C-alpha cells in the first residue's frame, strides 16, 4: 500500500520534491559523466591527429586540416545526425521493454548508414576536383585528397560505431563505452608514431591511424555486447514485453521485408535529427569561411581554428547531456511515466544553464592563459583572448539549446529542434554575424557575437 501511495504521489502534477530531484540528478549524471569522458577522449584523438600532421610540415597540416573539415561537414556530421534518429525509438523501446523493436531498429539504422555512405564516399573520392573548382591551392588540395582517400574505410566503421553508441546509451550503458574508447585512444598515439615517424607513411599514416582507432572501438563495443550477454538478455523477454525466443528474433532480423519495412518510419525520425545536428555543426565551418574575408584573413582564420577547437571541447558536456537526457526522457515515456520524463527534462535544462554559466566564468578568467596554450604569436594570442568571453557568453545559450534538442529527440520531435537551429543559426545568427563583422566594421569579434 505504501508503494502504491508513493507511486500515486510521483505521478501527480505536483511539484517534485527535493529527494526526487536529487534522485534524478544521480541517474542523469551517472550517464553524463562517462559520456563526457568519452567525448573528451574523442577530442584528444582528433588533437593527436592534428599534432602529427603538424610534425610533417605546414603543407601536410594545411591539407590534413582541409580534409578533416571536409569529411566532418560531408560525412561524420551526417552519420552522427542520422544515428541520433535512433534515440527516441531505442530509448522508448527500452522503456516499454519492446526488445524486438530495440534490436531491429539498430539493424535498420546500420542499413540506413550504409546507404548514406555511398554518396558520401563519392564526395570524398572527388574532393580534389571539388576543391580545385572552389579555387583552393593545388598542393594543399592534393594533400587533402590523399588524406580523404585513405579515410574512406572510416565510413564503414562509423556505420556500426554511431548506432552502437546510441543503442547502448539508450539502455543506460555508458561506462563500457567510456572504457572501450579509452582503450582505443590509448593505441592512437603509438599507432600514429609508428605509421608516421617509423614507417614514414606521412599523411596517409595519420588517416589510417584514425580508421584503425575507430575500428578498435567498434570491435571492443561489439565484443562487450556479445560477452556481457546483453543481446541474450534482451531477447529472453525478462519484463512486461513478453517472452521472445532467440530463434524468433533471428528470423525477424534475417527477414529482408521485416528489415526494409521499417526503414521509412525510422528515416522520418532520422532525417530531421540529422538536419538539427548538421545545421549547428556546419555553421562553425561557415564562420571559418567568413573569417577569410576579413581585413587580416590569415590571422582571423587561425584564431577561428583555435576558437572552434575550444568550442568543441566545451561542447563535450552539453553534447553528453543532450544524448543522456534524450535517453532518460525516452525511457520514461516508453515506460508510461510522463511525469518522470518531464522531471528529467527540467533537471537536465537546469544543469545545462549551470554548465553554460561555468563556461562563461572560465573563458573570462583564463582567456589569456588559454590562448597562450595554442600560440606564442602575440597578435594571435591577443585576438583569441579578446573573443574568448564572447564565446563563453554564447555557450550560456548554446548549452540549454543543445540540451533542449536532446529532449525533443527523446520525445520523437526532432523536426522542432531542426527548425529552431535553422532559424537561430541561419535566419538570425548569420545575418547578425555578417552585419556586425562587415557592415558595422566590428571585425572578427562581430562574427562571434552572433
TrEMBL record:
PANTHER family: MULTIDRUG RESISTANCE PROTEIN
Name of this protein: Protein DETOXIFICATION
Signal peptide: none
This protein's UniProt keywords: Membrane, Transmembrane, Transmembrane helix, Transport
Chain segments annotated as transmembrane: 28-53, 65-86, 106-127, 177-195, 201-227, 343-365, 425-449
Family: Belongs to the multi antimicrobial extrusion (MATE) (TC 2.A.66.1) family.
Organism, scientific name: Arabidopsis thaliana (Mouse-ear cress)
GO cellular component term of the entry, any: membrane
GO MF annotation: an example: xenobiotic transmembrane transporter activity
Localization per record: Membrane
GO biological process entries: xenobiotic detoxification by transmembrane export across the plasma membrane
Bilayer topology term: Multi-pass membrane protein
InterPro entries referenced in this protein's UniProt entry, alphabetically: MATE_euk, MATE_fam
Amino acid at each position: 500500500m505504501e508503494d502504491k501511495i508513493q507511486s500515486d504521489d510521483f505521478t501527480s502534477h505536483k511539484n517534485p520534491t527535493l529527494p526526487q530531484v536529487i534522485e534524478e540528478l544521480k541517474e542523469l549524471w551517472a550517464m553524463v559523466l562517462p559520456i563526457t569522458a568519452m567525448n573528451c577522449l574523442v577530442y584528444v584523438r582528433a588533437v593527436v591527429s592534428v599534432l602529427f600532421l603538424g610534425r610533417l610540415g605546414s603543407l601536410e597540416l594545411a591539407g590534413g586540416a582541409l580534409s578533416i573539415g571536409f569529411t566532418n561537414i560531408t560525412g561524420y556530421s551526417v552519420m552522427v545526425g542520422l544515428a541520433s534518429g535512433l534515440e527516441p525509438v531505442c530509448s522508448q523501446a527500452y522503456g516499454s521493454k519492446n526488445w524486438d523493436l530495440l534490436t531491429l531498429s539498430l539493424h535498420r539504422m546500420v542499413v540506413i548508414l550504409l546507404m548514406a555512405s555511398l554518396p558520401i564516399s563519392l564526395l570524398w573520392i572527388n574532393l580534389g576536383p571539388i576543391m580545385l573548382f572552389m579555387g583552393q591551392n593545388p598542393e594543399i588540395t592534393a594533400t587533402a585528397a590523399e588524406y580523404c582517400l585513405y579515410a574512406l574505410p572510416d565510413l564503414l566503421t562509423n556505420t556500426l560505431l554511431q548506432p552502437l553508441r546510441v543503442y547502448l546509451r539508450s539502455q543506460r550503458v555508458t561506462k563500457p563505452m567510456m572504457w572501450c574508447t579509452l582503450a582505443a585512444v590509448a593505441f592512437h598515439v603509438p599507432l600514429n608514431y609508428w605509421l608516421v615517424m617509423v614507417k614514414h607513411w606521412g599523411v596517409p599514416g595519420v588517416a589510417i591511424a584514425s580508421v584503425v582507432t575507430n575500428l578498435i572501438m567498434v570491435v571492443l563495443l561489439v565484443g562487450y555486447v556479445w560477452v556481457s550477454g546483453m543481446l541474450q538478455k534482451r531477447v529472453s523477454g525478462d519484463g512486461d514485453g513478453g517472452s521472445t525466443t532467440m530463434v524468433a528474433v533471428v528470423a525477424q532480423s534475417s527477414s529482408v521485408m521485416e528489415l526494409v519495412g521499417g526503414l521509412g518510419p525510422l528515416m522520418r525520425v532520422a532525417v530531421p535529427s540529422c538536419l538539427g545536428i548538421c545545421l549547428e555543426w556546419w555553421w562553425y565551418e561557415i564562420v571559418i569561411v567568413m573569417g577569410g574575408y576579413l581585413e587580416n584573413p590569415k590571422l582571423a582564420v587561425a584564431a577561428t581554428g583555435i576558437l572552434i577547437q575550444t568550442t568543441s571541447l566545451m561542447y563535450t558536456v552539453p553534447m553528453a547531456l543532450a544524448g543522456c537526457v534524450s535517453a532518460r526522457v525516452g525511457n520514461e515515456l516508453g515506460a508510461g511515466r510522463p511525469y518522470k520524463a518531464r522531471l528529467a527534462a527540467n533537471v537536465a535544462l537546469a544543469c545545462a544553464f549551470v554548465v553554460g554559466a561555468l563556461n562563461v566564468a572560465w573563458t573570462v578568467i583564463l582567456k589569456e592563459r588559454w590562448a597562450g596554450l595554442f600560440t606564442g604569436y602575440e597578435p594571435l594570442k591577443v585576438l583569441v583572448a579578446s573573443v574568448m568571453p564572447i564565446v563563453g557568453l554564447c555557450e550560456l545559450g548554446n548549452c540549454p539549446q543543445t540540451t533542449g534538442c536532446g529532449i525533443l529527440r527523446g520525445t520523437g520531435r526532432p523536426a522542432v529542434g531542426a527548425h529552431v537551429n535553422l532559424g537561430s543559426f541561419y535566419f538570425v545568427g548569420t545575418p547578425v554575424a555578417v552585419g556586425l563583422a562587415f557592415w558595422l566594421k566590428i571585425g572578427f569579434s562581430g562574427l562571434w557575437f552572433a
